[in-house]
């Protein structure tokens, strides 16, 4: 499915120009990104966000770029910045027409008078390098001025003019090298066929509107070492390079090689889904891993185990899926997988109850698609390790009860995917026996029984099957909520939590459902009436007094709403699974649900699906602009059920 996105930027409202964002990733933890207008609205926007120790220590090296065309001694700025009291220069003041094109890379077609300037940006695969080509396609000669604006900071931070930035420039044959700070990587920059004019100065008080919305510090100062000036003639192209790696010997060749790689990888296969999936794939020392989302997530175990199925297993990339699952199997510790791998050199955090359970489900999906006997035999001991530690007891009081249900949690610790906290207060602690955790626990037993039987360990398989039946019987009697005709969310020491949440969908959507069809249909109906939106499922019913329908404001306000009504896009996968199983016209309904969600591919992070949305209509997009499990789950159900889809810009 070959797809292109074409937008006439000069016809859009300023709001649309600033709220829609493009993203280009390098497969090594770095990226370039900004708004459609090219005016940064986040601290995470920039031309080169580089990973020093791929993929988890990242720096915003080149945050912005001032671009100006000189015609008849008159300046025509084709970039703009937000200084808090408005945009400067104001966009399109020179009666420019600007067309944005996105296929496998972002490209801008800029019309000024009789000239047509094509700007194309590529991050180089598996290198901390960005190359921007400027091609004067039509018209008489012009002069181009380019001034990089340097942040040279941790990508979560902000820069300030009081910082002791090093202003020295080391001149090389075709580029210049700077070392802004001792603890930062060196930055190498160059523009082919151009002359550089040193002019060190600070640009003060650049404003980031998205940071204002998030209740965070929203102003930054950026440093400039000077500017490049080049005369461009019709048909001529020049190449601007930013890199923390070795400067390319031939920038034009590097650009063309990357362009060729993308056309071969994506256009030749006519597959939009390959491009969307590859954004999250990170290569480090010949090992593949997944980033959970852009622009601020690192690798998260739970997210990876849910996302890998759609991004790779069902997406024609079984070798990549196998590599990721094998790598995570090596990280098992006392039966648990890491919740997340922090930035820098910090140790992985093993504070999740369900990541290891989703790992078993990911093995199931891989086995269904590949029938890879060697892999299955390699993974059975890992699955047995998970089962054994969880059954006997592991961290955070995770253990199996006498009834065969799984208990997890300690005061002040959040172990499920509903993990928000404000200070020391956990918003949704869910200590006890969460419904989706026990649904997953049942899957582990059933799947392990199947696999043991497959490899000839029949006695162990039969024993595991009996154990699974005990769990199912206990689940059915303990979790059914007769007053609401659905499932309790958590069984706690103080009683059952009857909040209507989406977690119960997993009891009827996973390969082995835990309730019989009549009750399963009642559960589905409750989820549909209370939680379904075109963007995904709400995390709490709007009828609940604790419901919060808007995810906005400072961190404590957002975290309080994160799992209290906010819509999560990834949950659409489980919802479609249940639709296919229990709705009389499941395939038709699933097709409508998926296509409705795909219309948002051009809504926030272009060519991707974000993390969350408001629970209240119109369900505005929030959180990360590109989220791995959101994309992965949509691809999975499309591929698994062979659903016909129509992309909004095909």
Give a quick set of tags describing it.
single chain; 650 residues; alpha+beta; Beta-galactosidase, Chain A, domain 5; nine-stranded antiparallel beta sheet; eight-stranded antiparallel beta sheet; 16 helices; 28% strand
Description:
The chain has 650 residues and is an alpha+beta fold. Among the domains are: 5-267, Beta-galactosidase, Chain A, domain 5 (Distorted Sandwich), CATH 2.70.98; 531-650, no CATH class. It contains 16 helices and 39 strands. A hairpin with a 4-residue loop joins strand 30 (480-481) and strand 31. Helix 7 crosses helix 9 (435-454). The radius of gyration is 26 Å and the shape is elongated. 50% of the residues are buried.
Quickly give the CATH architecture of one domain.
Distorted Sandwich
Largest β sheet strand count, sense and barrel closure: 9 strands, antiparallel
Question: Can you give the mean pLDDT?
Answer: 94
Radius of gyration: 26 Å
Strand order of the largest sheet: 1-9-10-11-12-19-16-15-14
Strand residue content: 25-35%
Helix fraction bin: 25-40%
Category from helices, strands and their pairing: alpha+beta
What's the total number of strands? 39
CATH class of one domain: Mainly Beta
Number of helices: 16
CATH topology of one domain: Beta-galactosidase, Chain A, domain 5
Low-confidence stretches: none
Global geometry:
elongated
How far from one another are the termini? 8 Å
């Amino acid at each position: 499915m070959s797809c292109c996105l074409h937008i006439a930027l000069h016809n859009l409202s300023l709001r649309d120009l600033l709220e829609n964002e493009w993203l280009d990733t390098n497969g090594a933890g770095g990226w370039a990104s900004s708004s459609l207008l090219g005016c940064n609205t986040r601290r995470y926007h920039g031309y080169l966000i580089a990973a020093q120790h791929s993929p988890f220590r990242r720096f915003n090296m080149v945050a912005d770029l001032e671009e100006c065309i000189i015609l008849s001694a008159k300046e025509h700025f084709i970039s703009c910045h937000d200084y808090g009291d408005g945009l400067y220069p104001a966009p399109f003041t020179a009666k420019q027409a600007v067309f944005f094109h996105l296929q496998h890379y972002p490209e801008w077609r800029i019309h000024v008078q009789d000239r047509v300037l094509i700007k194309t940006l590529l991050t180089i695969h598996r290198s901390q390098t960005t190359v921007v080509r400027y091609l004067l396609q039509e018209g008489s000669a012009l002069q181009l001025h380019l001034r990089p604006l340097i942040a040279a900071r941790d990508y979560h931070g902000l820069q300030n003019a009081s910082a002791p930035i090093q202003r020295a420039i080391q001149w090389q044959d075709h580029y210049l090298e700077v070392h802004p700070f001792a603890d930062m990587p060196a930055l190498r920059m160059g523009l082919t066929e151009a002359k550089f004019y040193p002019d060190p100065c600070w640009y003060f008080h650049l404003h980031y509107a998205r940071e204002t919305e998030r209740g965070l510090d929203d102003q930054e100062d950026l440093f400039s070492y000077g500017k490049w000036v080049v005369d461009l003639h019709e048909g001529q192209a020049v190449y601007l390079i930013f890199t923390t790696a070795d400067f390319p010997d031939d920038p034009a060749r590097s650009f063309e090689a990357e362009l060729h790689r993308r056309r071969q990888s994506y256009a030749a296969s006519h597959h939009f889904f390959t491009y969307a999936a590859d954004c999250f794939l990170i290569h480090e020392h010949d090992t593949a891993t997944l980033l959970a989302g852009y622009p601020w997530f690192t690798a998260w175990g739970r997210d990876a185990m849910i996302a890998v199925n759609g991004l790779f297993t069902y997406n024609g990339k079984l070798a990549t899926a196998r590599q990721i699952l094998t790598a995570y199997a090596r990280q098992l510790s006392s039966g648990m997988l890491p919740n997340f791998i922090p930035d820098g050199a910090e140790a992985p955090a093993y504070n999740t109850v369900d990541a290891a359970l989703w790992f078993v489900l990911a093995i199931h999906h891989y086995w269904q698609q590949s029938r890879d006997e060697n892999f299955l035999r390699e993974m059975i001991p890992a699955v047995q390790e998970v089962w054994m530690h969880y059954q006997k007891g592991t961290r955070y009081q995770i253990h199996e009860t006498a009834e065969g249900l799984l208990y997890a949690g300690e005061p002040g610790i959040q172990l499920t995917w509903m993990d928000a906290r404000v200070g020391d207060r956990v918003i949704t602690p869910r200590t006890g026996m969460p419904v989706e955790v026990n649904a997953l626990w049942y899957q582990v037993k059933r799947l392990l029984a199947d696999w043991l039987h497959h490899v000839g360990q029949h006695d162990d398989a039969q024993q595991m099957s009996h154990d699974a039946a005990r769990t199912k019987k206990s689940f059915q009697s303990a979790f059914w909520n007769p007053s609401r005709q659905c499932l309790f969310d958590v069984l706690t020491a103080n009683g059952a939590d009857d909040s209507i949440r989406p977690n119960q969908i997993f009891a009827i959507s996973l390969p082995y459902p835990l309730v019989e069809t009549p009750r399963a249909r009642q559960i589905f109906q409750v989820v549909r009436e209370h939680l379904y939106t075109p963007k995904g499922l709400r995390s709490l019913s709007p009828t609940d007094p604790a419901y919060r329908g808007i995810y906005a404001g400072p961190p404590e306000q957002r975290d309080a709403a994160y799992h209290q009504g906010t819509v999560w896009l990834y949950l659409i996968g489980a919802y479609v699974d249940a639709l296919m199983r229990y709705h009389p016209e499941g395939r038709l309904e699933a097709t409508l649900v998926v296509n409705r969600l795909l219309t948002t591919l051009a809504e926030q992070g272009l060519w991707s699906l974000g993390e969350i949305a408001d629970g209240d209509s119109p369900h505005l997009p929030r959180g990360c602009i590109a989220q791995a499990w959101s994309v992965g789950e949509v691809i999975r159900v499309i591929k698994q059920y062979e659903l016909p889809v129509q992309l909004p810009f095909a």
